[in-house]
Write a structure and sequence with these properties.
By secondary structure, this protein is α+β, with helices and mostly antiparallel strands. The chain has helices at residues 22-44, 52-60, 64-79, 83-104, 107-118, 127-141, 149-179, 195-207, 219-228, 232-243, 255-271, 277-282, 290-323, 330-345, 349-352, 358-373, 459-476, 496-503, 509-515, 527-536, 541-559, 569-576, 596-599, 609-627, 632-643, 651-659, 666-671, and strands at residues 182-184, 213-215, 376-379, 391-396, 402-409, 421-426, 429-431, 434-436, 439-443. Strands 3-4-5-9-6 form a 5-stranded mixed sheet. A two-stranded antiparallel sheet has the order 1-2. A hairpin with a 2-residue loop joins β7 (429-431) and β8 (434-436). The N and C termini lie far apart (63 Å).
C-alpha cells in the first residue's frame, strides 16, 4: 500500500516520513497525475455552462494527492537527497512539466476558462476571486493556450528539456560541493581561525577517520576560513575551488547547461510573443518590465558606486599597510574586511558568537512572533520527521487554535544542498468550510554543535535565521480561500518583504535582549556590542550593494536580451560585470555555472527583487520604528494586509493598505548610509 496515495491518518495530517520509501515516490506521482487528469476531465466534460465555481474554483482544488506527494518528494530532494532520489527526480520532473502542459494546452478546458473570463465584468466576485480568475486565465494565455498546434508541441518539448536541465544543474553543483575537501595536517596552517571553526574541522576529519582538519565548501566551513585564515595561499585554494564549481570542464560542468537554459527560455518567450524571457517574467511582477528593472538597478548603482569605490580603496590601502598586499584579490576581501571592521569598530564577530546560541536565537524569533502576532511555538515529539536533527513545533494563536506545523532543520549534511530556504509540505486553504492549516519548514546550514560547545551562530547566521523565519511566518499566517493564492504565492518581488523585514529586529536592543545571552554565563549581550552591531551594519554597504546589483544585472544579461549569439559563458559574464567589477578577474572561476538562484531556483529575471524588497522592507520597518518595534497595532496591520493575504490582491494595493503610501527608497538609502 502506497502511503502517499491516501489521506494521511497522522496527527494534523502531517507527512508520515518514516513510512515513505523511495520506491513510493515515482508511482505516487504518476498515479497523482492520473487522478488529477481525471479531475480535469470532469471539469471539461461538465454538461453545465462554465461558471466561476464549476470551472475556476474546481480547477484550483484539483490534484491534491499529486501536490502533496510531489512537494514531499522535492522538499526532501533538497534537504535529504541521495543518488536514488536524484534518479527519481530525473524521471518525474519531465512527467510533471508534461502534465502542466497537458492542462495549459487543453483547448476545451481553456475554452471554459475563457468563457468565464470574458464575462468577468458581470460576475459578483470578491477581490480574491477576481485575482484567481485573472491568474487562471493567464496561466493559459501565458503558457501557450492561444498557440497553433505545432507551436504548442514545440512548447512542450522546451518545457520538458528545461525541467531536466535545471535539475542536472543543481545535481552538478551538489556533486562539486561534496567532491572538494581541503585536508590540513600542519597546525601552523590554521593560524587566525576561531577555535570553533578548528574544532568543527577536526570533528569532520575524525568522522572520516583522518588525522588533522578538513575544510569544505559548505558555508559553515567555507565562510569562517575565508574570513579568518591568515594563510593567503590556502584562502586562494579554497576560493578558487568554490568559484570553479560547474566550471571545470569535467562531467559536472554546467557551461553548456547554462547556455542551453538561457537559449531555451528565450525561445520559449519568443514562441509566446514576448521580446525576451525577462519581458515574459516581469509582466507578472511589481517591476512590470525589464526597462523598469534596469532603471531601478542603475539608479541604485549610481548611488552605491562612489561609496563602493571609496570603500574598496580604503580596504586596499589597509591591506597594503597591514601586510604589504600590492593587489587585493577576491580571496583577500573577506579577510581584510573583517580586520578593518575590527580596527574601525573594535568589533569581532567571534566575540558575539557566545551570545547567539542557536536554541536561544530560535526562541527569540518565537518570542518576537508572539509579541507581534500572538503566536505560541511548542516543540512536540509526536510528529514524524525526515531526519533526527529536525525539530517540530505546533504553532497556536491567542485562542489556542492551531495556526501551523513548523519544521526546523538547521545543520549541513551530505544529502542537503547549500544555502537556506523556506518551503511547505502542505499549503493553507479553505475547503468545505474547513480552514486547512499549513505545514511550513525552514532549512538552513548553520554552524553545528561540537563536543565542547552548542551551536553558536555568527551574526550573519542570526540574520539568516530571522530571514527564513520571516518567509515561514508568511506561510504560517496564510489565510486565504484558494490554495494557489496562499502564503508565499505572491509576486516574486514581493515575496522577500516578509523575510527581509524580519531581519530588522536583529539590530534592535529591545529585541536582542530577548535572546542574545551568553551561553555559559547567561549575561545579556553588552550594550556596547549592540551599538557596534548597529554602527557596523552599514560597514562596506556600498560594496555589498554593488555586489547584489552585479548579480541582478548578470541575471538580466542572461534573460533581458537575445542570448543566441553567446558562446562563451565566461566572456559574457566578464562583459556583464564590467560596470560593477572591483577585484581582478579570476580566470579559473565563473559565477553563472553555480548561480543556482537563476538556473535552478525560481529567480530568473528576478534576482533584482532582493534589492527591490529591501526598499519595501526599510520603508515598512520605518513605520514600526515610528510607533515602537513591538507595536501591536502596526503588527496587526502588517499581518492582516501582508502576511495573511498571500497573493489575493496586487502587492502594491496590499502594501499601501498597510503603510498608507507607496514605499520610498529613502529609508533604504538612509539605513545603508548612502544618503
Amino acid at each position: 500500500m502506497n502511503v502517499l496515495l491516501s489521506k494521511f491518518t497522522t496527527k494534523y495530517d502531517t507527512a508520515p516520513f518514516s513510512q515513505i520509501k523511495n520506491d513510493d515516490y515515482a508511482p505516487a506521482i504518476q498515479e497523482g497525475i492520473t487522478l488529477a487528469k481525471a479531475e480535469i476531465d470532469a471539469i471539461v466534460n461538465n454538461s453545465e455552462a462554465p461558471t466561476f465555481e464549476n470551472t475556476i474554483v474546481a480547477m484550483d482544488y484539483t490534484g491534491d494527492i499529486l501536490d502533496r506527494a510531489s512537494s514531499i518528494f522535492f522538499n526532501l530532494n533538497s534537504a535529504e537527497t541521495n543518488d536514488e532520489m536524484q534518479k527519481i527526480a530525473q524521471e518525474v520532473s519531465p512527467l510533471l512539466s508534461e502534465f502542466g502542459n497537458d492542462i495549459t494546452l487543453n483547448p476545451e478546458l481553456f475554452a471554459r476558462v475563457k468563457t468565464v473570463y470574458d464575462s468577468r465584468e458581470s460576475l459578483p466576485l470578491t477581490p480574491e476571486q477576481v485575482t484567481l480568475l485573472d491568474k487562471k486565465y493567464k496561466s493559459f494565455s501565458r503558457n501557450g493556450a492561444n498557440l497553433a498546434e505545432d507551436k504548442k508541441n514545440k512548447l512542450r518539448e522546451i518545457d520538458k528539456e528545461l525541467s531536466k536541465l535545471s535539475l542536472q544543474f543543481g545535481e552538478n553543483i551538489l556533486a562539486e560541493t561534496n567532491a572538494f575537501q581541503m585536508h590540513l595536517t600542519d597546525e601552523k596552517e590554521l593560524a587566525g581561525l576561531p577555535e570553533g571553526t578548528i574544532e568543527a574541522a577536526r570533528s569532520l576529519a575524525k568522522a572520516q577517520e583522518k588525522e588533522g582538519w578538513i575544510f569544505t565548501l559548505d558555508h559553515p566551513s567555507y565562510v569562517p576560513f575565508m574570513t579568518y585564515a591568515d594563510n593567503r595561499e590556502l584562502r586562494k585554494k579554497l576560493a578558487i575551488a568554490f568559484g570553479a564549481r560547474g566550471f571545470q570542464k569535467n562531467e559536472f560542468d554546467n557551461q553548456e547547461i547554462v547556455l542551453k537554459i538561457a537559449k531555451l527560455r528565450f525561445e520559449r518567450a519568443q514562441l509566446l510573443g514576448y521580446e525576451t524571457h525577462a519581458h515574459f517574467v516581469l509582466e507578472e511582477r511589481m517591476a512590470e518590465s525589464p526597462e523598469k528593472v534596469f532603471s531601478f538597478s542603475h539608479n541604485l548603482l549610481a548611488k552605491a558606486k562612489p561609496a563602493a569605490l571609496k570603500e574598496f580603496a580604503d580596504l586596499q590601502a589597509f591591506a597594503k599597510e597591514a601586510d604589504g598586499i600590492e593587489t587585493l584579490e577576491k580571496w583577500d576581501g573577506g579577510y581584510y574586511s573583517e580586520k578593518l571592521k575590527q580596527k574601525l569598530f573594535d568589533f569581532d564577530d567571534e566575540k558575539l558568537k557566545p551570545y547567539f546560541q542557536l536554541e536561544k536565537v530560535l526562541n527569540g524569533a518565537f518570542t518576537i512572533a508572539k509579541k507581534l502576532y500572538g503566536l505560541t511555538f511548542t516543540e512536540v515529539f509526536d510528529i514524524d520527521k525526515y531526519h533526527p536533527e529536525v525539530m517540530t513545533y505546533e504553532v497556536t494563536d491567542e485562542k489556542d487554535d492551531l495556526v501551523a506545523i513548523f519544521y526546523a532543520d538547521f545543520f549541513p549534511r551530505k544529502g542537503k544542498r547549500n544555502g537556506a530556504w523556506m518551503t511547505s509540505f502542505k499549503s493553507q486553504y479553505i475547503k468545505d468550510g474547513v480552514n486547512e492549516r499549513p505545514h511550513v519548514s525552514n532549512v538552513c546550514n548553520f554552524t553545528p554543535p561540537t563536543e565542547s560547545k552548542p551551536s553558536l551562530l555568527t551574526f550573519n547566521e542570526v540574520t539568516t535565521l530571522f530571514h527564513e523565519f520571516g518567509h515561514g511566518l508568511h506561510g504560517m499566517l496564510a489565510n486565504t480561500t484558494y490554495p494557489s493564492l496562499s502564503g508565499t504565492s505572491v509576486y516574486w518581488d514581493f515575496v522577500e518583504l516578509p523575510s527581509q523585514v524580519m531581519e530588522n529586529w536583529c539590530y534592535e536592543p529591545e529585541a536582542l535582549a530577548l535572546f542574545a545571552t551568553h551561553y555559559q554565563t547567561g549575561e545579556v549581550i553588552p550594550m556596547e556590542y549592540v551599538n557596534k552591531i548597529k554602527e557596523s551594519a552599514s560597514f562596506q554597504e556600498g560594496i555589498a550593494t554593488m555586489r547584489q546589483l552585479s548579480f541582478g544585472l548578470l541575471d538580466m544579461g542572461w534573460h533581458g536580451q537575445d542570448p543566441t549569439a553567446i558562446i562563451d559563458v565566461k566572456a559574457f559574464e566578464t562583459e556583464q560585470f564590467a560596470a560593477t567589477q572591483l577585484y581582478p578577474e579570476v580566470v579559473e572561476n565563473a559565477m553563472s555555472t553555480a548561480f543556482s538562484h537563476i538556473f535552478q531556483g525560481g529567480y530568473s529575471s528576478g534576482y533584482y527583487s532582493y534589492k527591490w524588497a529591501e526598499v519595501l522592507d526599510a520603508d515598512a520597518f520605518e513605520y514600526f520604528q515610528e510607533y515602537g518595534i513591538f507595536n501591536k497595532e502596526v503588527a496587526t496591520k502588517f499581518k492582516e494586509n501582508v502576511l495573511s493575504k498571500g497573493g489575493t490582491e496586487h502587492p502594491m494595493i496590499l502594501y499601501k493598505r498597510f503603510r498608507g503610501q507607496e514605499p520610498k527608497p529613502d529609508a533604504l538609502l538612509k539605513r545603508a548610509g548612502l544618503l
